[in-house]
Amino acid sequence: MEKKKEAEKKLVDIKDLTICSATGQMLEKARRDGVETAFDRAVTMKACPIGADSACCKHCFMGPCRLNAKDPYGKVGVCGADIDTIQARNFGRMVAAGTAAHTDHGMAMLALFRDVVRGEIPDYQIKDVGKLESVARSIGIETEGKSVQEIAEALYEELERTYIQVDGEVPFSKRVPEKTLEVWRKLGIVPRGAMREIMEMMHRTHMGVDQDYENLVKQCSRTALADGWGGSMVATEISDILFGTPSPVAVEVNMGVLKEDQVNIIVHGHEPNLFESILESVQEPTLVQAARDAGAKGINLVGMCCSGAEMLVRHGIPHAGNFMSTEAVLVTGAVDAMAVDVQCIKQGLAKVAECYGTKLFTTNPRCKILGAEHIEFHEHDPKDCTDEIVIRAITRFKNRTAQIEIPRIVNSGVHGFSHEYINYMLGGSFRSSYRPLNDNIINGRIRGVAGVVGCTNARMKQDWVHVELVKELIKNDVLVVQTGCAQVALAKAGLTSPESACLAGPGLREVCETVGMPPVLGLGSCVDNSRILIACTAMVNEGGLGSSIADLPVAGAAPEYMSEKAIAIGHYFVASGVYTVFGVTFPIIEGTKFYEHMFEELEKLGCGKWGFTVDPYEMARMMIAHIDKKRKALGIDKARERVLMDMADRRQMEG
Ligand code: BF8
Ligand code: SF4
Known about the structure:
By secondary structure, the protein is α/β, with parallel strands linked by helices. The protein has 26 helices and 16 strands. Helix 15 links the parallel strand 7 (337-340) and strand 8 (359-362). The termini are far apart. The chain binds FE(4)-NI(1)-S(5) CLUSTER with Oxygen and iron/sulfur cluster. The site of iron/sulfur cluster (SF4) has 13 residues, from loops.
């Protein structure tokens, strides 16, 4: 009885857990059904306060050593390591892990590309030859007079260096604005090859190696840059070449995209090849017939998290929700199969799937989960796996026993703004260029550009910080670009529709209405943050906004992040020159030398810098202040005042 009371006391109001109504509805149902989710566990599992401050070290067995965040210099570890060393080493290992995740994903895409080019995989082809040629040219490969095969072979050879090169500079460093590259060279942080950088990061953070926090941060930067301008960028570019470069497409999101009378299959993870093949399987006439024979009206394929985001921007496949909704969606009882590959897949899914009779399939040899059935995906015969998943989903549909409740919520929006499309959209087919964007920034209609990206987190009210932050930014004429779970948060809030331009400030609204675009542009998955790097580069190269990425009136944020990948992304933006503000918590102790270095000194060295706050309005204020600082440095702060005065006059006259 006492225990029951205890448990009831701990039940948090669902309105404090999420602003996603569909997820909220499913959390209510989960409670009724006695099913536990990450939201519940976050309440009972108190975050370790020492770990949260990054004040502990377990890099050797004289420890683990715990320092005191309230008196950070009061003691050192058994070996003598001080708080700055400990924090920098911990941070370095997070960057290494995040970078490893993206680069391993990118490497898998590159290996797939190689085998496709060599004719060993008939199931995939090069879909976007134009992109193949432009990527090749961007890193100095001659394309004139060469066959597609020759260009592709040369591109493979060149991009392989991203991973295995031991000395030199990664191939995509050729795309970096000259002055930014100059800063990197001066600091000695141009990545050589991702494997080397990750290896060196792990080595230097071993007990008794690098014990100078500034030197460690340099290797953090070099490793993270091997992600942004290496692994992630390869993943994006190769996926575009193989599966198509996104262009705007109207898409439906939220749990209402599930259909009670159809076989529902969700793909959740990160590498697009599984999803691309399953998309073919669900169109296979024999399988469609099998679904009909089982009494279903059809097969409904839906995405979640980042593989979902890629299919959303590339093919307009509906998306059921972001990271904090992956358990909740199973509570509908309507999911017949969930197929996962790698990254951000909660082990808790196995238990929830079991409760509702959903089939959970792992497909990748790098990611198995106890309680999930493994049907391995092989690129050389992908349909073997994906057809089987569809067959098993149909069987589950036939034998559904779970009570079904699908939240009737669907939101529409437009997604798929690759940097190529932004170029075309603003410049038109005659003079594709970033000139109109730059001009609108210079004349002040657009105050600046913000990237709002990253996860959702069980310790935050899901989607709330994302939505409030973005609303505040667009209201202040800041154009927002998005990827990953953040993009889905805003899509569910309706802000990816062109109509949401009415929520933007007068300048941004005018631009959006003229072009017919939303004020929030969805670019894709987390590896597609590399699209933002290229967009920044295009803005620098177009002229008028300074000569390095650090000069641009731009800022970034991951307000509800949870993963080490997000840390790696944040740090490659910082190293590239972008002020980047994180929410939730930050693994650092305020006032330490390491803190000063990350939050102030990096900017003085020509990079960006880190910022932190949990409050969305404060976050917006910090980002806008930074954008205004950059506008002032560029001498374009006055233009904005003039253009806004003009617009006010015009609206008054119209009124
Ligand atoms: O890479 S945003 S929760 S799904 S880590 Fe994960 Fe975070 Fe979502 Fe994709 Ni990115
Ligand atoms: Fe402690 Fe030093 Fe070992 Fe870390 S490396 S656990 S600080 S003794």
